[in-house]
Amino acid sequence: MVEGSMTQGAGQGPEVERTATLRDFRVPAYVHETGPYAQSTHPGDVVPPAEETYPEGYTPTQRDLPVINRGDTVQVTVDPASVPAPQSATGQGPLYVVGDVHGYLDELVAALQEQGLLDAAGQWCAGTARLWFLGDFTDRGPDGIGVIDLVMRLSAEAAAAGGYCKALMGNHELLLLGAKRFGDTPVNSGAGTATFQAAWLLNGGQKTDMDRLQDHHLQWMARLDAVEEVDGHLLLHSDTTAYLDYGHSIEEVNDTVRETLTRNDADEVWDLFRKFTKRFSFRDEGGADAVRSLLDTYGGTRVVHGHSPIPYLLGEVGSEDGEDDSGPVVAGPHVYADGLAIAMDGGVTMAGKLLVQQLPLNV
């Protein structure tokens, strides 16, 4: 099965105005404003399917996503309301996951407050609750570094309260790390010569983020895990089976990703980035089998992912004429692939919704 080859999301228009159209995929204008939230330097704390092939000319530097017709994805109606999750016998609090943020700090704070995880001052107030971010903190939106600072601070505050706030590696973390480390160094892209710097700019890189990027941000990103299993939920960023290329256990995958970043070889890191940009592995015919290959290998009963915006999975995207500026309607997570996959990217970059969801879902 061939997965989609493009990086995710829609571009951002002038200033911070978001667009629901598919037409504007230009590099967004740099935005010189930051959120009012405090910063911190605390670190955040089977048999596989047949080998996949890349489309001819495949490269993750392509910036456009196709419109996916409604008939292209198997849809499962879901009530986004969660099953109440009482504290377990081990004293752990309820489990929450956050979809792609992409620099939208204000929207993130509002969504966390709506779920009762942050107080009015933006401080952790959820006690022993457990919070997982599914990756992609920067690019396209106005304050990616502010988002990282917030997640790092919440990691310390949640731990002090007996809970935790943790995060996974997204393809945009790999992209930002590569742009900072390797800049214009040529890499073998699989479709000719490319550079991390060009790919970063093409996919919404923000100059204000790069200017504010510090060593502790880089160290924090480079230490992020790629996969985790929590309460039967297999958490990962991308809707791809490419994780199987990096190990047969969660620990092996995470170790392999970290070792790749530690070796600091531009071509190796590019190949990792390229594979993590793949998408749409779980939709269409054979999608449920792709999910099962991950569950059989790493454990869990459901995959929970970000990366591919729900509006694209459902075909709910803005019109090409630009006249409809209402944006896509995203009520909550999208459950599909015979109920085995939960998509969490609500399309905040295209005027959708930044999703924070308590698990398990009531389906």
The succession of helices and strands, N to C, reads EEHEHEHEEHHHEEHHHEHEEE
Helix amount: 25-40%
How are the strands of the largest sheet arranged?
1-10-11-9-8-7
Largest sheet: 6 strands, mixed
What is the helix tally? 10
Sheet/helix structural class:
alpha/beta
Number of strands: 12
Q: Unreliable segments (pLDDT under 50, ≥5 consecutive)?
A: 1-6, 8-58, 66-87, 319-323
Rg, nearest Å: 19 Å
- Overall pLDDT: 81
Overall geometry comes to globular
Strand content: 5-15%
Distance between the amino and carboxyl termini: 28 Å
Q: What does it look like?
A:
This protein is α/β, with parallel strands linked by helices and 363 residues long. Helices cover 28% and strands 11% of the residues. The strands form three sheets. A six-stranded mixed β-sheet has the order 1-10-11-9-8-7. Helix 3 packs antiparallel against helix 8. It is globular and about 50 Å long.
Compact summary:
The protein has ten helices and twelve strands.
SSE topology:
Blueprint: E1 75-76, E2 95-98, H1 105-114, E3 130-133, H2 144-160, E4 164-167, H3 171-182, E5 187-188, E6 193-194, H4 196-202, H5 207-212, H6 215-222, E7 227-230, E8 233-236, H7 250-263, H8 266-276, H9 287-298, E9 302-305, H10 310-314, E10 334-336, E11 341-343, E12 356-359
Parallel strand pairs: 2-3, 3-4, 8-9, 9-11
Antiparallel strand pairs: 1-10, 2-12, 5-6, 7-8, 10-11
